[in-house]
Amino acid sequence: MKINADLVRKQKGDKIAHKKDAVRRLNEIRYRVRSQSGNGIYSVEKTEIGWKCDCPDHKFRGMKCKHIWAVEISFGMREQAKPKMILEPIVAVRCPECDSIKSRKDGIRHNKSGDLQKYKCLDCGKWFSINVGFEKMKHSPQAITTAMQLYFSGESLRNTQKSLKFIGVDVAHTTVNRWIEKYVGIMKAYADNIKPNVSQMWRADEVYVKIRGDMKYLFCLMDDETRYWIAQEVADGKQTHDARNIFHEAKVIADKRPETLITDGLHSYKRAFNDEFFTIEKPRSQHINAIKLSGKAHTANNNKMERINGEIRDREKTMRGLKIKETPILQGMQIYHNFIRPHEGLEGKTPAEACGIELKGENKWITLIQNASVNTKIN
């Protein structure tokens, strides 16, 4: 009987999940679910010991009710509906002289920084090597991406230089900086043209940074569900900043507007929200602008944004301040946060993976640089 009863609840939950707007995500742990008749509304919340619903079936009988089933089924439907974008390492062999795809392997080219496979074009007879994204670079892709991993994991330029010596790569710290400037530029240009499948709830916050000893503010916009860092902007002041630029950029990158925007009470957020996100069309966007650092209501605190702010402060401390306002370091941190660094809150996924963007290959830096290089001109 219990098996049959559970099956009936699951079937009823499936019917609820397939009704339009019957299951609505309020935040990362709380959902609003309409009753099967459509006349009532129940609250389903994720706790440390599982799902909890305030309906009588669950509250008094301890059963996994149809509303919990509806949330789980709805979540599965959303995951399946997410468009998938898979970035593979580029291994296509094409002759740089005549653009022919007819070639064969013909020995190894021994470089100081590593070996490269040589190919012979069967059409024009030229020999060539393939090193997509790292053409004309003295050092190997492994050395360059190892340096970027070390640096954006928290090491200084000089400590990165010292660590590279352990794997036989002897470079100046200024060379590491040039690698960062070059490859962050092409990765950022490419990443901004990828449409992340973010949720309908976004968060914005600002954190002070020192640039040549002067106080500046970094404004950041992040997706609540996937923690995808959508956009950023460095401003000279906090109260005088016009946040419309970063809101507009985020709307273009995500190709949509949020249904809910969570910020603090900064007046420029309200003005920018009205100009960029507010519409009379339904569903209308709402602006929650009374957040605090902590609290039980997850829409009333900004702990997730504080995590990004903490990453920025740690990076700034290692560097002893930033040098220029247009620094590639902050953009590199955004790329590292979105595409490289796994997050515990996402069950080990990166924000990009949570948005349906998957990087294949053992070295995600190389995969991202290769795909960016074929779409972005490298100087």
Helix content: 25-40%
CATH topology of the domain at 201-323: Nucleotidyltransferase, domain 5
- Number of E-type strands: 14
Structural class: alpha+beta
Largest sheet: 5 strands, mixed
CATH level 1 class label of the domain at 201-323? Alpha Beta
Low-confidence region ranges: 293-299
CATH H-level homologous superfamily name of the domain at 201-323: Ribonuclease H-like superfamily/Ribonuclease H
Main-sheet strand order equals 11-10-9-12-13
Give the rounded overall mean pLDDT.
85
The run of helices and strands is HEEEEHHEEEEHHHEEEHEHEHHHEH
CATH architecture of the domain at 201-323: 2-Layer Sandwich
Structural commentary:
The structure is a single chain. By secondary structure, the chain is an alpha+beta fold. Among the domains are: 2-81, no CATH class; 201-323, Nucleotidyltransferase, domain 5. The chain is built from 12 helices and 14 strands. It has a 5-stranded mixed beta sheet with strand order 11-10-9-12-13, sandwiched between helices. A hairpin with a 2-residue loop joins strand 9 (201-211) and strand 10 (214-223). The longest helix is centred in the middle third of the chain and has 19 residues, at 173-191.
